[in-house]
Specification:
The complex is a heterodimer of chains A (262) and B (222). Helix content of chain A is 38%, strand content 23%. Chain A is α/β, with parallel strands linked by helices and 262 residues long. Chain A is globular, with a radius of gyration of 18 Å. The two termini of chain A are 34 Å apart. Helices cover 80% and strands 0% of the residues of chain B. Chain B has helices spanning 9-20, 23-48, 53-68, 71-86, 91-116, 120-128, 133-163, 175-186, 189-218. Chain B starts with 8 loop residues before the first helix and ends with a helix. Classes of the chains: A alpha/beta (262), B mainly alpha (222).
């Protein structure tokens, strides 16, 4: 398959993590959502975050591209420091152009067809010429397995197709890091596989990925590291086989026994 | 009931050429007034949803004042009141200004509602792709919000067109005024006001039809 857009993801900078969080704290009013989060993600690493709903795992990855503000701590993405309290800065803008995100609800632009969904950011943010952006769009659509749908509108596609367009849209910016916020949770069961396949291939191509998901089988298969979050704290992390087969923390044990039972 | 009254068709028909001279005024006040009102509406509608209280409060004050007082009072205030303060304002200008500030207040609320109806995820998707807040608004939020505003904007257009009939009282030569002038010499009120009503209906039905076409086209891809 195509490796056209994997170059930026594989251009490792040795020694430095692409994501570096130190004592990150976030509050919603009095509610302490994220507690002293320390996290390092290296180039090319695939990190899967698991945890119960409301544990703060989505909030954590939404902090990384500044969709959520944090109050204390350090957050550095690809050498750019994000400031607390969501203050606008050049770093925030830079980070967002370098970090792609796939959402649970796809969030495709319903008034634009598939091609325009994909070419919007490259042309408006990077100033890329339209023909070049369209070429990239075609290539990405081919890569995620939806050829010949470029003229359709999102509402004319299935959920699985929409999510793959959303993936292509994010990849068109040639991100150095991809965030996935429960990318299969809104999908019908028969469409989950096609989205996971596309993500699997992306991981194989060397993309750095942070994935929040409930798909434990997928996590075990693609993750270099699994992180378990409980009530805003990283309780346990390690290789998938360590965390899934031999969890050390009793909270991890009880969570896994609940989700792996069926 | 006056038993020997008969509807005089020839009187109705012969009033048409005279009445038609009022239509350009009706249309001019409506179109120019609404166009200005649309920009006022975008301006105050955006201020209204600003996170800053210093921007939000003036918008709320504007909207409440001009939505909460009658257009007739507004036009009298401008034509007689403001003319005394800032110098002569012609009836046509006063009418346009009244439609602009009045429809602007309503359109502010339409704009606000339209923008707020767009799912939060749309904005997040735009920002996460690296688009600036302005470009996220321009390319993602506004086009979708505007489509949702079309029915309410059409509604406001129809209301404002009918409101221009009130400006007969300050002597604008619009439809109703032309009717009054005609009736003063012919005494055929029933026939002439029926024709006046039909002319308003012709204008508003045309607008309704245009809106329906626009909505149908706008629905593509939603």
């Amino acid at each position: 398959m195509s490796h056209a857009l994997s170059t930026s993801a594989t251009a490792h900078r040795d020694g430095e993590s692409i994501v570096r969080l130190r004592k990150l704290n976030k509050y919603y009013g009095a509610h302490h959502v994220l507690k002293n989060i320390d996290l390092d993600v290296s180039h090319g690493e695939v990190v899967v975050i698991i945890g119960a709903s409301g544990s703060g795992k989505s909030t954590l990855i939404r902090c990384i591209n500044g969709l959520e503000e944090f109050q204390q701590g350090q957050l550095r993405v690809d050498g750019h420091d994000l400031r607390p309290y969501g203050k606008a800065s050049r770093a925030l803008q830079t980070i967002r152009t370098e970090v792609g995100m796939v959402f649970q609800q796809f969030n495709l632009f319903p008034h634009l067809n598939v091609r325009d969904n994909i070419t919007l950011a490259p042309t408006k943010v990077k100033g890329m010429a339209m023909p070049q952006a369209m070429e990239i769009a075609e290539r990405l659509l081919d890569r995620v397995g939806i050829r010949d749908q470029a003229d359709k509108y999102p509402s004319q596609l299935s959920g699985g197709q929409q999510q793959r367009v959303a993936l292509a849209r994010a990849l068109a910016m040639e991100p150095r890091l991809m965030l996935f916020d429960e990318p299969t949770s809104a999908l019908d069961p028969e469409m989950i596989g096609e989205v996971l396949d596309a993500m699997r291939e992306l991981a194989r191509d060397g993309m750095t990925m942070i994935i929040v998901t409930h798909e434990m089988g997928f996590a075990r298969e693609v993750a270099d590291r699994v992180i378990y979050i409980h009530q805003g704290e990283i309780v346990e992390q390690g290789r998938p086989d360590e965390v899934f087969d031999n969890p050390q923390n009793e909270r991890t044990q009880s969570f896994l026994s609940r989700v792996l039972k069926h | 009931m006056n038993s020997n009254f008969t509807f005089d068709w020839s009187a109705a028909l012969s009033s048409i050429p005279h009445l038609l001279t009022g239509i350009p005024y009706t249309l001019l006040i409506s179109i120019v007034g609404l166009a200005i009102g649309f920009f006022i509406g975008i301006f105050f509608g955006l201020l209204r949803i600003s996170p800053s209280r210093w921007l939000r409060v003036p918008a709320i004050v504007y909207i409440e004042i001009f939505r909460g007082t009658p257009v007739l009072v507004q036009v009298l205030f401008i034509f007689y009141g403001l003319s005394d303060v800032i110098g002569h304002i012609g009836p046509l200008t006063a009418g346009i200004a009244a439609i602009a500030v009045n429809s602007g207040a309503y359109i502010s609320e339409v704009v606000r509602g339209g923008i707020q109806s767009i799912e939060r995820g749309q904005r997040e998707a735009g920002l996460s792709l690296g688009l600036s807040r302005l470009n996220t608004f321009r390319y993602i939020i506004w086009p979708q919000a505007f489509r949702r505003m079309i029915p309410a904007l059409g509604n406001q257009g129809i209301i404002s067109i009918k409101d221009t009939s009130l400006f007969a009282v300050i002597g604008v030569g619009e439809l109703v005024r032309q009717g009054q002038i005609y009736i003063a010499t012919t005494f055929t009120a029933l026939e002439v006001y029926l024709m006046v009503a039909l002319m308003y209906l012709a204008i508003t039905l045309t607008l309704s039809l245009l809106l329906r076409l626009l909505e149908r086209r706008g629905l593509v891809g939603q």
